[in-house]
Amino acid sequence: MPLAFKIYMASWIVACIVAAGMMIRRRHTIELFTRGYRAMLLQNWKVATFAVAATGMVVIAPYTGDYTWDYIDASFMSLLAFTTAPWVVGILFRCIRYMKDWSMLYIAVSVWMFSVSWSYDGYLVLRDGMYPFTWLPNIFASSVLYFCAGLLWSLEWREGRGVHFAFTEAGWPQAPESSNLARVIWYGLPFMIIVAVMIIAFLF
User: Fold this and answer.
1) What three-state secondary structure class fits 158?
2) pTM, rounded to two decimals
């Protein structure tokens, strides 16, 4: 492996270790680990759309012609997107909007990069013994999918507000008033289309 990749890999491993330590220290205040976040995420329509998207990603993996994409990385990257993307999008919005808690911003960026890139890179180094040449384009392509997922699964409906992103609520995250897909489908459709088009594009 070239020296530049060894330095890059060592750098992101250190970044992940630091972020993990910060998450452990702040575990009682990080929304990702709260009951409200789980309730927000485990709505029927969100679980169902995740199952469809993840199945599509995993099923087409061997047919894309991309040697770096297999059943394993398609599976764990899909799971990471579902479990972390709504939280990361929410933290980025709240940190930038309110200009505070920059340590939480560091954690969120680390989780984002681990989910879309570093876990993928590390897996392929272990599998193939070399750093994937697709590491840079993967960051951009996977980040688009990741943020679409985060925005889609952040959609909520509340009496008096209608459909909105859950992270704009003062009490975010919390259990939803409704888990009815019919209330949010038209707002979520653009994100679903982007993801579907990108997945299908890998086949051609």
Assistant:
1) strand
2) 0.93
Cβ proximity of 121 and 69 under 8 Å:
no
State how far Cα 4 lies from the chain centre: 27
Token duo for residue 19: 């972020």
Q: Which residues contact 129 (CB under 8 A, 6 or more apart)?
A: none
Q: Which amino acid is at 128?
A: D
- Closest to 30 measured CA to CA, from 82, 132, 101, 79: 101
| 156, containing H or E segment | strand 155-158
Distance CA 84, CA 170 (A): 20
Q: What is the pLDDT of residues 158-173, one digit of tens each?
A: 887 888 999 998 889 9
Evaluate whether 68 touches 132 at the Cβ level (below 8 Å): yes
Q: CA–CA separation, 194 vs 130, rounded Å? A: 31
Question: 115 near 144, Cβ under 8 Å?
Answer: no
Query: Of 64, 89, 76, whose CA–CA distance to 146 is shortest?
Result: 89
Averaged pLDDT for residues 66-90: 95
Q: How far is CA 45 from the centre of its chain?
A: 17
Q: Cα–Cα distance between 128 and 173 in angstroms, integer? A: 40
